[in-house]
Amino acid sequence: xxFVAGNEQVDQVxEQVDQVxEKVDQVxEQVDQMxEQVDQMxEQVDQVxEQVDQMxEQVDQVxEKVDQVxEQVDQVxEQVDLExEKVDQMxEQVDQMxEQVDQVxEQVDQVxEQVDLVxEQVDQVxE
Length: 127
What we know:
By secondary structure, the chain is mainly alpha-helical. Helices cover 98% and strands 0% of the residues.
């Protein structure tokens, strides 16, 4: 019996070893699955990193465009200022011409008065 009992213990130990082996296999499979998941997550992180880089480049491009538009606005601003100065100068010239027209008008009025006086004198002489 001792030998038979020993065989049963060997069989039981063998079964336990088989069960432990199966559990090790299961854990190996789980580790493999986790490795695959980690690899997939690494790929996703890389993709997100690339997208962030692309977005950064786009932000830089937009920044450059904003700078260019700002420069163009400054140039237009300068042109508007120059045109404004020209308009102001033309306005001053128009004011001066108005004054000259007024002065000439006054002179015409004075000449008209003198003509009237001369006309009256002519009338008096003619009487």
